[in-house]
TrEMBL record:
It is an enzyme of class 2 (transferase). The chain crosses the membrane at residues 30-47, 59-82, 88-108, 120-141. It catalyses: ATP + protein L-histidine = ADP + protein N-phospho-L-histidine. It comes from Nonomuraea rosea. Residues 173-236 form the Signal transduction histidine kinase subgroup 3 dimerisation and phosphoacceptor domain. Residues 289-377 form the Histidine kinase/HSP90-like ATPase domain. This is histidine kinase. Keywords: ATP-binding, Kinase, Membrane, Nucleotide-binding, Phosphoprotein, Transferase, Transmembrane, Transmembrane helix, Two-component regulatory system. Its EC number is 2.7.13.3.
Amino acid sequence: MRFVLLGAGVGALSLLVVHGQAGVRSDLPLPVLVAVAAVAGLAAWRAQRSWWPLAAAGAVAYVWLVMWPPLLAASFFAGTTLRRGRELAAYVGAAVAVVGLSAVVGLVRGGEHELATATTGNALLTATAVIGLPLALGLWYRARREVQAAARERAGRLEREQVMRAEQARAQERARIAREMHDVVAHRVSLIVLHAGALEMRAGDEETERAAALIGGIGREALTNLRDVLGVLRTPLPEGVVSAGREVALRPQPTLGDLDRLLDQSRALGIAVTRHDEGAPRPVEATVERTAYRVVQEALTNVHKHAGNAGTDVRIRYLDDELEVEVRNGTPAVSREELPGAGWGLVGLRERVELLGGTLRTSAQAGGGFLVHARIPA
């Protein structure tokens, strides 16, 4: 668009300049002057692709009619385009030759043409205003553009380096977390599995043997899940990929189809768990099923920690466009010492549910007990 405006401006200004110099244009008819101005404007419009036609048109128009706008525009483009000193010197020499040739033509024709081009003062003024200043302006514009381009490239390089440093720091932190989890958590869980196995072998009654076997099985499952997590932490992320959207080749995650096994584990530890399914069961997204499973899992874990042998109801409701999960436990019949916890289970669970556009509500019940209620779009 700007080159269209440039072409129109050069053409209009050229016609205005040459039409106002009756002695210079001699007796040329107006259509000829309009055609010459139009050619100059067209050459200025095409200067984005090649400015040499504009320089040629400007040289002919200046020598013939003292039409200076095309030559001025060509000098600016020469400053923005020519890179080597020899090229600039050649252009300046050619432009000075055009001014000299126009002076010769002025001497031959006489009149206003001679006054405009053949006098020393006017020739110097024309060379300075039409060639020197536009050429210097073009050189400044090109230098400014190169400085800006270099600044943008430097800023982009610094940004890429910053991203690389952040990725490196993230990878180091992930590796540190993986080491800590392996050295502390995995070691302690392994000891639990070993002691459970020893207890199972030395158990004096069948009930103790079943409890030890259950503890060992849960511990081995925890170690398997922990190894999966450590594998994710140890795996470097590819460039441009964030961890939240990365697909990691793991074994299938638990869904609602695995819920009964989870409830059986809680029952084996002495908790009376009752499952209620409401509505017509239907397939839902895998992420929804996994989240529903984690809601029940976290709620039962809290029952184990804080409520001991309290009876617990688990309800799965299939609504038209939602899946409701409700875990409600009563007051334990026998108080017991609470197990320590990090306190982040429900926080992480709420984040997991909200990522799917759902809501999680937790509250203590008036008659005792606790309620965990999740609504997940499905």
